[in-house]
Specification:
The chain has 8 helices and 11 strands. The chain is an alpha/beta fold. A 7-stranded mixed beta sheet has the order 5-2-1-6-7-11-10, with helices on both faces. A two-stranded antiparallel ribbon has the order 3-4. A two-stranded parallel sheet has the order 8-9. α5 links the parallel β8 and β9. α1 packs parallel to α6 and α6 runs antiparallel to α7. The longest helix has 13 residues. It is globular. It starts with a strand and ends with a helix. Pfam families: DJ-1_PfpI. InterPro entries: Class_I_gatase-like, DJ-1/PfpI, INH-QAR. This is DJ-1/PfpI family protein.
């Protein structure tokens, strides 16, 4: 089973690596990082590079697509190569998914028209302009349409565990969860917009502005 994770300049590392860590634990899963060209792609802050081992032209029939987000998605919204690739591969995928603002790319390709979807809260308004209907849920499934979207960054791990369950079975998902020792016990309870106080939201906004 082949899982394709597109990479692009200024992607968010955990959006891609979180699902990768979950999915690659299953022996029959092959995860391929792909992009416009082979070679290293740097994350949104430039501190980390991840290698694309294939191009979009080389991966034409993935079983699963996991499209990560990051500030770089805004530049890609008019990228005809990616939009055409998503439109071409989606009819044959088992699931086409996104993490964080990767949902913007699914929407730009017309895959979320009229559907509810989630993304990072900072991209919610933009997602609505692209034909989807944002909801502040951690994972949103449309199984008949074979579409799953995950909210910001860390939610990609949750979505990937659900994917393993859907693709294989519950025990496989639980085994993957155990292997990565995913047992969240955060020291703070500010991981969702509805839970964060005003000061935390202001600091988060300042951090976000510094990355643009």
């Amino acid at each position: 089973m082949q899982v394709a994770i597109p990479l692009f300049p200024r992607f968010t590392a955990l959006d891609a690596i979180g699902p990768y860590e979950v999915l690659q634990r299953v022996p029959s899963v092959e995860v391929v990082f792909l992009g416009h060209r082979r070679g290293e792609v740097r994350t949104e802050n430039g501190m980390l590079g991840v290698c694309c081992d294939a191009t979009f032209d080389e991966i034409q029939a993935p079983d699963v697509v996991v499209f990560p987000g990051g500030i770089g998605t805004r530049v890609l919204l008019e990228d005809e190569v990616i939009r055409a690739w998503l439109t071409a591969v989606h009819p044959r995928t088992t699931f086409t998914t996104s993490v964080c603002s990767g949902a913007l790319m699914l929407a730009a390709a017309g895959l979320l028209d009229g559907l509810t979807a989630t993304t990072h809260w900072g991209a919610a308004e933009l997602l609505n302009t692209l034909g989807a209907h944002y909801v502040p849920d951690r994972v949103v499934e449309h199984l008949p349409e074979r579409i799953i979207t995950a909210a910001g960054v860390s939610s990609g791990i949750d979505m990937a565990l659900r994917l393993v369950e859907l693709l294989f079975d519950r025990e496989a998902a639980q085994a993957s969860q155990l292997l990565i020792e995913y047992d969240p016990q955060p020291p703070f309870d500010s991981g969702a917009l509805a839970k964060a106080d005003a000061a935390t939201k202001a600091r988060a906004a300042a951090f976000q502005r510094s990355r643009k």
